[in-house]
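Supplementary Note 2. Why include the ligand at all?

Several targets in our set were suspected to adopt different conformations when bound, so apo predictions alone were not considered sufficient. For every target with a known small-molecule partner we therefore ran a joint prediction. The input for glutamic acid is given below.
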Amino acid sequence: MSYRGRIAPSPTGYLHVGHARTFYTAFERCRARGGTLVLRDEDLDPERSREEYSRAAIQDLHWLGIRWDEGPDVGGPHAPYAQSERRELYLAAWERLYAAGLIYPCTCSRRDLLRAAQAPHEGEGGGDEGPMYPGTCRPPRTLRSRPGMEEERRYRSPAGANWRFQVPDGEAIPFTDGYFGPQRLVAGQDFGDFLVWRRDDVPAYQLAVVVDDHEMEITEVVRGRDLLVSTARQILLYRALGYPEPEWYHCPLVLDREGRRLAKRHDALAVRTLRQQGVTPAEVLGR
Ligand code: GLU
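The joint prediction is reproduced in token form.
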């Protein structure tokens, strides 16, 4: 199978040095294998995404010397390349998970709801996906063996409830990372039941990213190290949906002077700010 990689910026702010390096790594790994690179606009969250940032990301990526073969600006066989236009695909996946009894509606906190469309980056407001979900709304174990029956298909659509994937407690999820080597995260210990759909009818990051990487036939996912735990969550979704798992390559994070992970609030390290100051692409990329 030929290599297919992707870069997937979220248009919730300007790209910073950390994004630049991760995306450049994705570009280089793809180029070294003569592969096809996809640009996907992860504009899932209508509240936080701005078209201005989508446009800026394309400009900044070009300035860095990154080129792609498929994307919202150039089209391609897997169009559309913006998540806001791919809802039907996520809905079909929700339906399958629901019919299989692998997800359940949850009426807990609003805080989780607000986070779920965003990739859960370590070190941002409490770290990862927030506190581990204690399982308050989990259905009794017996329900899982009678998929769909228990509620007589009460839900025809996900709207109106938060939906969580029930993780297999105690099960280790092993995978090999192309940079960090063997990983082993334990469901129910390293992460809990995670959101796949938000009450305000927005698909959650975990579900959307898995559906897209599968539909776009991505063979290797290159992303920041702060998404390692999410990779384990996503492996559970790959299994649940019967998708073959891609390879994984997590990039070390760029830290600021205080040793914190860069976030979009670090304007000083935004690619465009540096560019305006006369910094070169090679300097941004640390080469
Ligand atoms: N769109 C996500 C972000 O900007 C990255 C998604 C991923 O690599 O899975 O954080």
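Residues 1-85+255-287 form a domain with the Rossmann fold fold (CATH 3.40.50.620). Residues 98 and 188 are 20 Å apart (CA to CA). Comparable summaries for the other entries are listed in the accompanying table.
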